[in-house]
Amino acid sequence: MSASVTNAATDARVCPGCGSASVIHYPASRATGRSVLGCKACGLPAWAERSEFETPSFSEEVETDVGDLDVEYSFADAKRVETVESAWIDTVGRLREMSTSPHPRLYDVGAGDGAFLELAESYGFEVNGNEIHAGAANLAAERHGYQLQIGDLSELELEPVNDALTMWCVMVHTDDVDETLRNCHALLKPGGTMFLQTPHWTTVDAMALSALRLSKGRINRIVDRRVASHHWQLHTKKSIKVLLDRHGFDPFEVRPRARYTLNSALYMSSLGIPEGVARRSSKAVDLAIKYGPVPRIVLDVYARKR
After folding, report:
1. pTM
2. pLDDT at 225 over 70
């Protein structure tokens, strides 16, 4: 990652992962006005202006009802179900093998409609989880019979009673990553295992960022798609290890995965490719994902609480 700082005001910025002031500020996208902050110490790229944007408060979030989630869950229904389920099965199986308790407890952060909790329970876990959306919690109750804790972890009473904790692409959506990890630490027993999946900064992303820099923000489509409000930090293997170590975790496995959970046509459309072209190309993309070398866009991370 190489570039020169373009704005003297960025000298005061620090990396949201490791806290280093050794950062690079890339040119802003001509399309969105967003820019990327790159850390020279741990390699984390992040949305530089994230803290300047207001986000909904907790009280506003929990007012969401089931009807308001129709779009969100229809979008989820467009995911590759077999890919999601395979990842869930692999993860919950490993977590069960790691636990020495005869009746281990698992807590799922951002549990959605509770489907993952149902799988974990079938593996012998006593399960619980939270949701900031009251509507999603209602779905978990209706579909799977779970009474989720409603609210952000910072709003809840946390006890270190869990043997395992899971976060499926949740951390990247949180406003305060440090607070989220402190709360996750507080939920686990000493020696308990946290699994998280989070977006991964790939070689293709680095090439796209170089193109954006050289074009002074004109070539921006991939960077705008990958570093945005829904993916405001894209970790490297080094940056996620540094971040977790700083919060009292020992990461013992960090593995990049080519896990494309979204339907190919929808993913290409999100990159700005015309719908018809995306639809016609989707089968070829599906084959490449299944058989060929493609960017490993997520990290699977296992870490133990110290």
Report:
1. 0.84
2. yes
